[in-house]
Amino acid sequence: MLRxxxxxxxxxxxxxxxxxxxxxDVHAYQRRPDVVRWLAGGEARTREQSRASVLAMTxxxxxxxxxxxxxxxxxTDARVIGTVELVWRSQVDRTAELGxxxxxxxxxxxxxxxxxxxxxxxxxxxxxxxxVYARCHARNEASARLLARLGMRQEAHHVxxxxxxxxxxxxxxxAVLAGEWRSRAAGAQG
Length: 190
What we know:
By secondary structure, this protein is α+β, with helices and mostly antiparallel strands. 32% of the residues lie in helices and 34% in strands.
């Protein structure tokens, strides 16, 4: 089992497992059309749908087996402003997929980058991952910029590769390897 030592702290944030008490904060962004527009389904959630989402996330506190999702609440000023997650895609290849959702009221200050950096760093140093990748809708420019800020390279632009709402959509794939991550961190310190 792979589990971070909780909480993970950054300069401005605390990352910890999601709890049922996070419902109000999570629903505050899950109910917003501007947040869910790039997510599968794309529908703003009712409070009951958010309750079910939070309940599911409370069990995602470790990577126990391939396919598991580690979802962490991102907290600042005693409020959950989003979540970051790693999905264990391959145990043999030591690969995970990064995901994130944030309340837009907290955008533009680098908080999503800070949270994602902390989780990816744990993935490489704490979980021994070899590769972390992320996917986003090709028109989701904010997500693509965040992935580039993390030091991920764009590896692919898949044309009309997945069903999105009523049609086909393009998808971008970004990735970073453990050695690249370590080199990036060493360069930042030097």
